[in-house]
Design a protein that fits this description.
This protein is mainly α and about 575 residues long. The chain has 24 helices and 6 strands.
Length: about 575
């Protein structure tokens, strides 16, 4: 068997292994339901909004515009809830396999058709968390593919057409995630370098064409998108920037985040010494033989990896283990292919591929990844026990909520319920991802990434939220009001919630639709309270009345009971 056949057979095996592993791990992440809900509302003609509340200004609670548009396309084609999840998962798996295939193609081209083993492709296919996050319904695998394609274009930029393609990839990356601006900036530096590579800064027409070719997609596509986004949402930055405390750096947490990941996948650390050595050393005569033997590929890899790692350290990482590091792992692993090209020892490529693959398969995970209370966790592992019950309960709730102005407050995995139950208004209060007020609340103490915003019960009452899906609602303030408990008789064992406010008409209709609904009749509760009000201290009555006002009186016209409280307080 010749060298080409061996190489592409191994590449095909790596692609199939990556796709097969991602398929076996398919699931839908909590945050993906936010994009799915935006996509459905957009395709149904409501606009790019999370809530169907005409009084609420649009909030940009997604960070993946291009991915959301891909999901909206499926909705417009008639995909239902389950089919839409499968559509998102299938695209993620395809992009994950595309990354492995692209890495193999890069190694083959760099070697001039002499490579024997696609080291980077084999290594990336063996990373469990890359395969786990690919089918999660998020844009992660698409973003990794776009960043890797940008690196591929930067390795050898020969003409204006190649610069235009690089700019187009950059626009797609920036539309897929805001941090796509980082590889765009690095790629722009390489375009400028190539435009003035003669060293005299006397730019000629061909030089200008490189710059214009790269900048044209941004001017024609991304700039109008930015203007539209600012006009529609009222802000230059997405709401998630504030929800994740993007302006508040947390490098200590970022260091721990990166350290734990690279200790888990320890073979990746083999990439750093040759990358630093060949990128920083002076150019040598080998550059005249092939551009891939020179300094340019190493500088490109260092630029993509170094800039993005600095970003991850600055923002403090993410609560999903490894997700923020995946975009640069293909570039980092490609350094091993470049090393095999520089040091042509026949044993080196198979040895490196074996070490990296086995080391990534038999990873050394940090403790606590299956504990949702930890700052960083394996999101798939902690979500799987809840995905099925939430899906079943929220689909049961959909006809119950149909036609009613139900307002729920959600956190974490409850985005699944907001998406499937189709409640018109859902307020995400763990981080404020889809709520401008909560997103901008100051964080008193940094905690779990993106989940450390303080609770604001008074705001939820002002918004007229009816049910809180977090059953510890207000319990974390030391107050447990049992009259807030409500249990929907959803299968298999019921869906417990907490009442935020009492809407007389809504609760009456829900009781009519659901005879098995378990909730205190709050108006009867008030009558019992008022019968004994003369025996209660006035300070307690005043405190209770303030609580009852936000919960009940501010949302229901009940002058008789209100007058009884006011009389008791005089």
């Amino acid at each position: 068997m010749n060298r080409r056949a061996v190489f592409w057979t191994l590449a095909a095996v790596a692609v199939l292994a990556a796709v097969g592993q991602a398929w076996a791990l398919r699931w839908t992440c909590d945050d993906a339901f936010i994009s799915l809900r935006y996509a459905r509302h957009f395709a149904e003609g409501h606009g790019l909004v999370f809530n169907l509340d005409p009084a609420e200004p649009p909030v940009e609670g997604y960070t993946n515009f291009s991915w959301t548009m891909l999901l909206a396309l499926a909705v417009s084609l008639g995909f239902g809830d389950g089919a839409l999840e499968a559509w998102a998962s299938a695209w993620g798996i395809a992009c994950h396999g595309g990354v492995v295939l692209l890495l193999a193609a890069m190694a083959w081209r760099a070697s001039g058709g002499r490579a024997l083993v696609p080291v980077a492709a084999v290594g990336y296919a063996a990373i469990h968390h890359a395969a786990s996050l690919a089918p999660a319904g998020l844009e992660t695998a698409l973003f990794v593919l776009l960043v890797t394609a940008m690196l591929r274009a930067c390795l050898a930029l020969k003409c204006a057409r190649a610069a235009w393609l690089l700019g187009f990839l950059g626009v797609l990356a920036a539309l897929t995630r805001p941090d796509g601006a980082i590889p765009c900036a690095v790629a722009g530096l390489f375009v400028l370098h190539d435009a003035c590579r003669r060293g005299d800064w006397a730019w000629r027409r061909s030089d200008w064409r490189l710059v214009v070719g790269y900048a044209a997609p941004f001017l024609l596509v991304f700039a109008p998108y930015l203007l539209w986004r600012h006009g529609y949402y009222g802000h230059w930055l997405p709401n998630t920037f504030y929800a994740k405390s993007g302006a508040d750096p947390h490098p200590a947490a970022g260091f721990v985040y990166a350290r734990d990941f690279f200790v888990c996948y320890w073979p990746l650390m083999l990439c750093f010494p040759p990358l630093a050595w060949f990128a920083l050393r002076k150019p040598d005569l080998l550059a005249a033989i092939s551009p891939f033997l020179g300094r340019r590929p190493w500088l490109a890899v260092l630029g993509f990896v170094g800039s993005y790692l600095a970003f991850v350290l600055w923002v403090g990482g993410d609560f999903m283990f490894g997700r923020f590091l995946l975009p640069v792992l293909p570039a980092l692993l490609f350094a091993l292919d470049l090393l095999c090209l520089r040091w042509r020892a026949a044993w080196l490529p198979p040895a490196l591929a074996t070490i990296v693959a086995l080391g990534c398969v038999f990873r050394v995970e940090p403790p606590g990844l299956d504990d949702p209370r930890n700052d960083v966790s394996d999101n798939r592992r902690i979500s799987l026990p809840w995905i099925g019950p939430f899906r079943e309960a929220s689909e049961w709730l959909r006809p119950v909520f149909a036609g009613l102005d139900v307002r729920i407050a959600i956190a974490g995995g409850h985005a699944n319920v907001a998406y499937r139950s189709r409640a018109p208004v859902a307020i995400e209060c763990a981080a404020g991802l889809t709520d401008a007020h909560i997103a901008r609340l100051p964080v008193p103490v940094r905690g779990k990434r993106g989940h450390d915003k303080p609770r604001d019960p008074a705001y939820l009452e002002r918004r007229g939220a009816h049910f809180m899906l977090e059953t510890n609602y207000q319990g974390d303030f030391g107050v447990v009001d049992t009259w807030r408990d409500v249990l929907f008789p959803a299968p298999p064992v019921g869906f417990p919630m907490r009442l935020v406010t009492w809407d007389r008409e809504l609760m009456a209709e829900l009781r009519r639709r659901l005879p098995g609904l378990q909730a205190v009749d709050f108006e009867q509760f008030l009558d019992g309270y008022l019968k004994d009000v003369a025996n209660k201290p006035k300070a307690q009555v005043a405190a209770d009345y303030a609580k009852f006002t936000g919960f009940y009186f501010a949302h229901n016209d009940d002058p008789a009971r209100k007058a009884a409280f006011e009389a008791a307080l005089r």
